[in-house]
Design goal:
By secondary structure, the protein is mainly β. It has strands spanning about 5, 10, 20-25, 35-40, 45-50, 60, 70-75, 80-85, 90-100, 115, 120. Strand 4 (about 35-40) and strand 5 (about 45-50) form a beta hairpin.
Length: about 120
Amino acid sequence: QGQLVESGGGLVQPGGSLRLSCEASGFALAYYAIGWFRQAPGKEREGIACISSDEQMTYYQDAMKDRFTASRDNAKNTVYLQMDNLKPEDTAVYYCAADYRHCMVQPQAPWDHWGQGTQVTVSS
C-alpha cells in the first residue's frame, strides 16, 4: 500500500520561508503527478499547485504562484514545495497527493494517495 509523508512544517515568522517535502513509499513517485493543498481551521481544503510526473508542467492556483514553487526529485522519490514571504493567512495544514492519471489543482479530484499533512504556522 503506497504512502505519502509530508515534512518540513513548523513555526515561522511573517516574511520567512519554508520548504516542505513529500516523500513516497511503496510506489514509484516518478509515475505520478503530485498536488499540494492546504486546509486552514474552519475552511475548506484548497489547491496550491500540481506538478506533472516528468516535471514538464506545473500548475498553480493564481493566488499562490508568486510565493510558492513546486519541484521534484524523482531519484529521491520526493516532491517539494518552496514557500516564500509567508503570511499569517498561510497558516494551515499542508498536504500532498499523488495521482497516476491527472494533474489538477483540485482537492476534490480522485487522488490515488494522500499524505497525513504537516502543520505550518506563520506568526510573530
